[in-house]
């Protein structure tokens, strides 16, 4: 769960491992990615503030080659 007014959105999941409003820990798997066509695996990811998509780079950090949401 994020701070008030923030949400993260993931699409093209093959299988989602969490439910809406679940609290997750850093590094926890939340979904498996699925093929959307025959040539590529795709993940759609958004950070939203008050329901509007914002640039996610301001909310991410990298540690040991993994990317996390702050």
3D structure, described in words:
The chain has 70 residues and is mostly beta strands. The protein has one domain. The protein is built from no helices and 7 strands. The strands form 3 sheets. Strands 1-4-5 form a 3-stranded antiparallel beta sheet, with no helix packed on it. Strands 2-3 form a two-stranded antiparallel sheet. A hairpin with a 2-residue loop joins strand 6 and strand 7. The mean pLDDT is 79.
Briefly characterize the structure.
This protein is an all-beta fold and 70 residues long. The chain has no helices and seven strands. It is 0% helix and 43% strand.
Characteristics of this structure?
70 residues; mainly beta; 3-stranded antiparallel β-sheet; two-stranded antiparallel sheet; 0% helix
Mean pLDDT: 79
The total tally of domains equals 1
Strand order of the largest sheet: 1-4-5
Largest sheet report: 3 strands, antiparallel
> Which segments are poorly predicted (pLDDT under 50) over 5 or more consecutive residues?
none
Proportion of residues in extended strands: 35-45%
Counting helices, strands and paired strands, the structural category is: mainly beta
Morphology: globular
**Roughly how many Å is the radius of gyration?**
13 Å
Query: Which H/E pattern describes the elements?
Result: EEEEEEE
What is the percent of helical residues? under 10%
Number of strands: 7
Tally of contiguous helical segments: 0
Distance between the termini: 11 Å
């Amino acid at each position: 769960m994020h701070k008030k007014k923030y949400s993260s959105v993931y699409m093209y999941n093959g299988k989602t491992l969490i439910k809406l409003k679940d609290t997750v820990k850093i590094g926890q798997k939340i979904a498996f990615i699925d093929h959307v066509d025959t040539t590529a695996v795709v993940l759609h990811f958004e950070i939203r503030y008050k329901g509007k998509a914002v640039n996610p780079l301001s909310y991410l950090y990298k540690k040991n080659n993994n990317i996390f949401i702050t």
